């Protein structure tokens, strides 16, 4: 049977985990220490601290890793647990400063793509559209006709296809899978 959780340690974890969670690094280190001594009680401790398992286990990984690096605590707290979790696979003591600079300069959505080497080009801006269902279907069909690919996770290569659609990029060689449908042709095309 696993050892019981020390009530004082549990109170300390709850105090650190209570919003606004000002000291993420301290919480991460305490969770890592707790996981080392009470691995079978981790789920119970996360529930008692009102932390979702994804965040709790991410903080545990962060706490284990940050003890080796010795980075500025205030800077790590400002970056946040989501970006720190994204950086963990790439973080070493040699590149810590550069990766922390990158994390401060980018948002969480772009950070994993940039770390994989597929980030947006310099100066790129994100745009969004509010479209009705028929408008979205028409745009999707037009993008597919110009080189985008429909996957389970949405459209791939949609930026390049949009640039081809407006005439800003070269048109790809036509193939049977990318031919335009007569349904979307305008009378002038």
Secondary structure topology:
Layout: H1 7-17, H2 24-37, H3 42-48, H4 53-69, H5 73-79, H6 81-87, H7 96-105, H8 111-115, H9 133-145, E1 149-151, E2 154-156, H10 158-165
Antiparallel strand pairs: 1-2
Helix pairs in contact: 1-2, 2-4, 4-6, 9-10
Q: Helix tally?
A: 10
Radius of gyration: 24 Å
E-strand count: 2
Q: Tell me the quaternary state.
A: single chain
For the biggest β-sheet, the strand order reads 1-2
Shape estimate = elongated
Written as H for each helix and E for each strand, in order along the chain, the element string is HHHHHHHHHEEH
Class from helix and strand fractions: mainly alpha
Report on this structure.
With 189 residues, the protein is mainly alpha-helical. It has helices at residues 7-17, 24-37, 42-48, 53-69, 73-79, 81-87, 96-105, 111-115, 133-145, 158-165; strands spanning 149-151, 154-156. Strands 1-2 form a two-stranded antiparallel ribbon. Strand 1 and strand 2 (154-156) form a beta hairpin. It starts with 6 loop residues before the first helix and ends in a 24-residue tail after the last helix. The model is unreliable at 176-187 (pLDDT under 50).
């Amino acid at each position: 049977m696993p050892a019981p959780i020390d009530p004082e340690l549990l109170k300390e974890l709850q105090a650190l985990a209570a919003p606004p969670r000002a000291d993420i690094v301290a919480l991460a280190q305490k969770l890592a220490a707790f996981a080392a001594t009470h691995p079978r009680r981790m789920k119970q401790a996360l529930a008692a601290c009102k932390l979702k398992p994804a965040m709790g286990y991410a903080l545990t990984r962060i706490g284990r890793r940050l003890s080796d690096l010795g980075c500025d605590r205030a800077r790590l707290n400002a970056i946040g647990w989501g970006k720190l979790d994204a950086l963990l696979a790439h973080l070493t003591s040699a590149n810590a400063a550069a990766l922390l600079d990158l994390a401060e300069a980018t948002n969480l959505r772009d950070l994993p793509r940039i770390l994989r080497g597929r980030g947006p080009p310099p100066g790129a801006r994100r745009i969004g559209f509010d479209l009705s269902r028929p408008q979205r279907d028409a745009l999707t069909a037009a993008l597919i006709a110009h080189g985008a690919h429909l996957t389970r996770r949405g459209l791939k290569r949609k930026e390049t296809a949009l640039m081809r659609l407006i005439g800003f990029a070269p048109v790809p060689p036509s193939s049977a899978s990318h031919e335009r449908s007569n349904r979307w042709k305008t009378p002038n095309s």
